[in-house]
C-alpha cells in the first residue's frame, strides 16, 4: 500500500493553487476510516450527520460532544494521515465563545483533529474570532445549515435570490477576515459557489453545491446507498449497499434456520478422553 505524507492545511491550500480537487467524505468509525485512508481520501469529516445515519435521529441536533469526540478519536486511529475535521454539534458553540473554545479544544487535543467545522454566519463572527484567537483552526460552514433547519423551515437550496446570495458572499468574506482557514458551502447554487471559490485563497469545499468548489464532501451513507431515514442529499450513488447487505443478512438467517451454519466439521471439538471425563463428572 502506498504511504503518503500527512495532509495539512498547507496541502489543501497548495491543491487549490494547483487546481487539484480535494476529496472529502464523512466518516463515523475506525474500520471505515482505515478503508478511506487506504483509498487516499484527502480529508475525513466526522459530521454531526452521525446523529442521523448512525443513531437514527431525524435531524443532526441530538449529536453531542461526548459522541463526536469518541467517534473522531476512532476515525483518527484509522486514518492517521487524512486531514481530519471535527464537526461542532448543535449548542456546542452557539451559547458563548468560552464554551466554543473548550469544545473545539476537545476535538483538537483529545481526538487529534486538524480543524473544527461550525455552521456560522455573521451573527457568530465573534465566536469564530475567539476560536481562531485560541489557535483553533475553523472551517466555516455556510449556505444550508442543518442545525438551523427549524428556523429556516426545511432542507432547501440557499442563496437562489440575489439578495440572499450577496449575504452569503459577505458572510464568507467576514469569516475569511475573522481567520477561518477554510469554507464549506452546503446546498448553494453552483454559480454562487463559483463566485465564492474564485474570490478567496481559502480552500472551499462544496456539499451539493456544484462542480466549481476546490473540493467535494458527501455523506458516506448517501454515496454508498446505505441506510435510511435521514434527509436525502442528491449525490452520485456508487454502490447499493442497502440491497446488498439485506441480501447478505437474509442469506445468514436462512443458513441458521436450515442448519447450514455453523457446520459440525468446522467447529472446535474435544478429544474423546476429555469428553469421556467430562461426561463422567457431569453424569456419573
Ligand atoms: O455533518 C455533516 O455530515 C456535514 C456535511 C453534510 C457537510 O456537515
List keywords for this structure.
284 residues; alpha/beta; TIM Barrel; 2 domains; eight-stranded parallel barrel; 12 helices; 8 strands; binds 3-methyl-2-oxobutanoic acid
Q: Strand order within the widest sheet?
A: 1-2-3-4-5-6-7-8
What is the overall number of helices?
Answer: 12
What share of residues are in beta strands?
A: 5-15%
Per the CATH scheme, the topology name of the largest domain is: TIM Barrel
Shape: elongated
Low-confidence stretches: none
Q: Give the CATH level 1 class of the largest domain.
A: Alpha Beta
Explain the overall architecture:
It is a single chain. By secondary structure, this protein is an alpha/beta fold. It has two domains: 9-239, TIM Barrel (Alpha-Beta Barrel), CATH 3.20.20; 244-283, no CATH class. The chain is 43% helix and 13% strand. The protein has an eight-stranded parallel β-barrel, surrounded by six helices. The longest helix is centred in the middle third of the chain and has 17 residues, at 162-178. It is elongated and about 85 Å long. The structure holds 3-methyl-2-oxobutanoic acid. 3-methyl-2-oxobutanoic acid binds at residues 26, 45, 47-49, 60, 87, 184, 186, 207, 217, 219.
In short:
With 284 residues, the chain is of the alpha/beta class.
Topology:
Blueprint: H1 9-18, E1 22-26, H2 30-38, E2 43-46, H3 50-53, H4 65-78, E3 83-87, H5 97-109, E4 115-119, H6 125-133, E5 138-143, H7 149-152, H8 162-178, E6 182-186, H9 190-198, E7 204-207, E8 215-218, H10 220-224, H11 241-257, H12 272-283
Parallel strand pairs: 1-2, 1-8, 2-3, 3-4, 4-5, 5-6, 6-7, 7-8
Bound molecules: 3-methyl-2-oxobutanoic acid (KIV).
3-methyl-2-oxobutanoic acid (KIV) binds next to strand 6.
Amino acid at each position: 500500500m502506498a504511504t503518503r505524507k500527512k495532509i495539512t492545511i498547507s496541502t489543501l491550500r497548495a491543491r487549490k493553487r494547483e487546481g487539484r480537487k480535494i476529496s472529502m467524505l464523512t466518516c463515523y468509525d475506525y474500520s471505515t476510516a482505515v478503508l478511506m485512508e487506504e483509498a487516499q481520501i484527502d480529508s475525513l469529516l466526522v459530521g454531526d450527520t452521525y446523529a442521523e445515519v448512525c443513531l437514527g435521529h431525524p435531524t443532526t441536533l441530538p449529536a453531542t460532544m461526548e459522541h463526536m469526540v469518541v467517534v473522531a478519536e476512532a476515525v483518527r486511529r484509522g486514518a492517521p494521515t487524512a486531514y481530519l475535521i471535527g464537526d461542532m454539534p448543535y449548542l456546542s458553540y452557539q451559547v458563548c465563545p468560552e464554551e466554543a473554545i473548550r469544545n473545539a479544544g476537545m476535538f483538537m487535543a483529545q481526538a487529534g483533529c486538524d480543524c473544527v467545522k461550525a455552521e456560522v454566519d455573521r451573527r457568530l463572527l465573534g465566536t469564530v474570532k475567539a476560536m481562531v484567537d485560541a489557535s483553533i483552526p475553523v472551517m466555516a460552514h455556510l449556505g444550508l445549515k442543518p442545525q438551523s433547519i427549524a428556523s429556516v423551515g426545511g432542507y432547501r437550496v440557499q442563496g437562489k435570490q440575489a439578495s440572499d446570495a450577496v449575504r452569503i458572499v459577505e458572510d464568507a468574506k467576514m469569516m475569511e477576515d475573522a481567520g477561518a482557514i477554510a469554507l464549506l458551502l452546503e446546498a448553494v447554487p453552483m454559480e454562487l459557489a463559483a463566485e465564492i471559490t474564485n474570490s478567496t485563497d481559502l480552500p472551499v469545499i462544496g456539499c451539493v453545491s456544484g462542480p466549481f468548489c476546490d473540493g467535494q464532501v458527501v455523506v458516506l451513507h448517501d454515496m454508498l446507498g446505505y441506510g435510511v431515514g435521514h434527509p436525502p442529499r442528491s449525490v452520485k450513488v456508487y454502490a447499493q449497499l442497502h440491497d446488498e447487505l439485506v441480501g447478505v443478512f437474509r442469506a445468514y438467517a436462512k443458513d441458521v434456520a436450515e442448519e447450514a451454519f455453523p457446520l459440525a466439521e468446522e467447529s472446535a471439538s474435544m478429544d474423546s478422553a476429555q469428553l469421556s471425563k467430562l461426561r463422567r463428572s457431569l453424569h456419573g
